[in-house]
Design a protein that fits this description.
43% helix; Cell_Envelope_Assoc; DUF218; Rossmann fold; alpha/beta; globular; two-stranded antiparallel sheet; 195 residues
Length: 195
């Protein structure tokens, strides 16, 4: 049921939303990939998934508010064009935001962090990390381990809506959010174990 799944996911969503009127100082914005939408007929080919689009959209909003350079990170775990290239194209074509750095090789959050550290200039240390709110604890852990100082820039909060009676009826959204909650819990434990 969504009402339970949303609460499971919400335990990871404890970072505050950034005040874009007074954003904290940073050196760059890093947007993490979240999958591809392959052979999208309405776009004439591959593009970002709906989850990646949420991240790209918020990253574009943050870039316009801060005027900081943008990095995108995401490989191609399912084959095809790397997510980073699709994110770059979406940022430019749909949001008129340029991408400074493209990291197209990583296929998970840990690799995103370490490949981004290797790619970005050494003076880029304090970053806005754009990902889903429920993904932030694991992503922050990985990026801090890689040597960044992270300003959490979450989007897609699961509890950004009021509870409706329909939330007490089993729905696919409940299964999806339960999956994300379990995935994040296991991933965070794994990252802490491997150090």
């Amino acid at each position: 049921m969504p009402v339970i799944a949303d609460r499971l996911l919400a335990q990871f969503e404890h970072y505050p939303v950034i005040n874009l009127a007074h954003p904290p100082a940073a050196d760059a914005i890093v947007i993490l990939g979240a999958g591809s939408y392959f052979d999208a007929p309405e776009y004439g080919g591959d593009t970002v998934s709906r989850y990646a689009l949420e991240r790209v959209r918020y990253g574009a909003r943050l870039a316009r508010a801060t005027h900081l350079p943008v990095a995108v990170s995401g490989g191609n775990p399912a084959g095809g064009v790397a997510e980073a290239y699709l994110m770059r194209d979406t940022l430019q074509q749909d949001f008129n935001v340029a991408t400074r750095w493209i990291e197209p090789h990583s296929n998970n959050t840990w690799a995103n962090a370490h490949a981004s550290r290797a790619l970005l200039p050494s003076q880029i240390n304090r970053i806005y990390l754009v990902t889903h709110a429920w993904h932030l604890p694991r992503a922050i852990y990985a990026f801090e381990h890689a040597g960044f100082t992270v300003i959490p820039a979450g989007t897609g909060y699961s509890l950004a809506k009021h509870i409706n009676p329909i939330d007490f009826i089993p729905q696919p959204r409940g299964l999806t959010n339960s999956y994300f909650a379990i995935h994040e819990a296991i991933g965070l434990i794994w990252y802490r174990l491997k150090g």
